Model the fold of this input.
Amino acid sequence: MQNRIDKKFAELKKKGQKAFIAFVTAGDPDLETTVDLVRGFEKAGVDIVELGVPFSDPLADGPIIQAASQRALSNGTTIPKIFAAVRAIRQFSEIPLALMTYYNPVFHYGESNFVKDAKAAGVDGIIVPDLPPEEAKTLIAMSRKSDFATVFFLSPTTTDRRIKKIVNASTGFIYYVSLTGVTGTQQGLPKDIIERIKKVKRATNMPICVGFGVSTAQDVQLISRVADGVIVGSAIINEIQKHKDSAALTPLIVKFVQQLSSNLKE
Amino acid sequence: MSVPDKSGHFGEFGGKYVPETLMSVLEELETTFTKARKDKKFKDEFAYYLKEYAGRPTNLYLAKRLTSQFKNLKIYLKREDLLHTGAHKINNTLGQIILAKRMGKKRIIAETGAGQHGVATATAAALFGLQCEIYMGAEDINRQSLNVFRMKLMGAKVIPVTSGSKTLKDAMNEAIRDWVTNVRNTFYIIGSVAGPHPYPLMVREFQSVIGREARRQFRAKEKRLPSYLVACVGGGSNAMGLFHAFFNDTQVKIIGVEAAGHGLQSGEHSAAICAGQTGVLHGSKSQLLQTSEGQVKIAHSIAAGLDYPGVGPEHSYYKKIGRADYVGVTDKEAIIGLKLLSQTEGIIPALETSHAIGYLSRLDSKAKKNSTVIVCLSGRGDKDVNTMKELI
Done:
């Protein structure tokens, strides 16, 4: 079977639509809610879900996702439990799922076993912000064997020479970091963002999805003019943090996501 | 075979595990450093500041009264504590700040645990007129208030870090987040032989003056090489600085002393090599204290400068190839060492350094008669007097 991420981008292309990718930290506030959120996201028009695997030292993340990781870890979220939640999602949904995590938990689990177990649970790919292609040879080799996507990053500081290396290492899509910084910064998108995305688009036919600092429906609309997908993380987590004790947490978050993504689905 | 290789690996350790945004600046730094280390102008400038400003060479002092406490050891102290700012850290910050200047960076950031690296960075920044911000764990700000004051006095801004364990590990997380954000105008001065390539290589190069001097001084005094080298290891920069020049002198036994905190069995320690597993933190692969889930454990040591769950990758490599042994010294043993050196020699060592002194009695019991040892006296204890007052 074709990887669900590739299949999704092919479908969207046919319809002339762009992907809305939602990030949530698995296990925040608990894994049952994570499963419910994914169910709701799919109905709300989310195309791909990034599930954050919490790590103790998330150095590419700002305070919002750091706090979410901490909440998830302190309630006992582990990789095997996340795989179980993915299996539960696969009972009712074929939405593409990618795991976003730091390298140490994957390395410690064992790269070969991680890819095997994630794939078997129904995960479609992996995104590791502290693992550049240069250090990812094993993970890439293991992933290719099982049609598991390896998403790498391009950033505003990536040199032309590196772009090719990153394009070659990536499958599924390429994650373009909109700004120099960590997730969830409020500094606003850089003025030349459209030009930069266009430049990257010229270097590859692979889908380019843009994340970091994308927090409003306006941002989503702006970026989707040129990119193939838009990734929203901290803005969603921020809402979860606000409503985490509410009985209506899931519907509130789903509604928020629907508002963000509605521009893409018209 | 010399390490690291071109990609920054020490065998399986080292490398560059950083967000993509930092990859280009690491390449730029590597190019600048590679050029500078061969450039006479850079070497002269670095040597000038080490000599005229920091106070090199430091003495290799025969500690006679300390020696008299032991059966088999003749002990020399490499007096890095006599350097300006009171520790070996200044060697590295002077080297890196000259590089920062070459790269045209106007803003300096650093992480600090005990505050020694923070002070050395603030010092170098003041000397070269650069803006300086230091990340320091809130816990460490409490236990090292004197160093915080010193940094501020020299014009640096000290940013308290309240996430995680509120110590060195979290200060480094925050410094890296700042660096990712301000990468275009900011130079990150890492304080140990840790972090992504080329930092472990670069910091070793700037600190290796310790071992080159010590080797020359020892041979002049003793007409031979020492039996042992002993140094404390947190990230491991003073240790690597001493060890590097002796790497090929295989008859010299090398011992790195890690902080065993409340004891290696207690789980409350900072002994990444003695009790950790291979992992990746802060940009490189090395030994790391971690849980069965690959989450980083919170370290413990009485010495803020050793209170770190990782260790520089080259130390993991030395251990792997058998070039050095690593041992653990507890908080209690370190305090015994601190008192011993203070009372026999009138030298109050830093709590970090006290771990190396605290190991000598164990070394003495297994050493052959007439063994010689160089201990890296990495820093002085003035900064720790508040902590000491509570403990002693």
Notes: The radius of gyration of chain A is 17 Å. Chain A has one domain: 4-265.
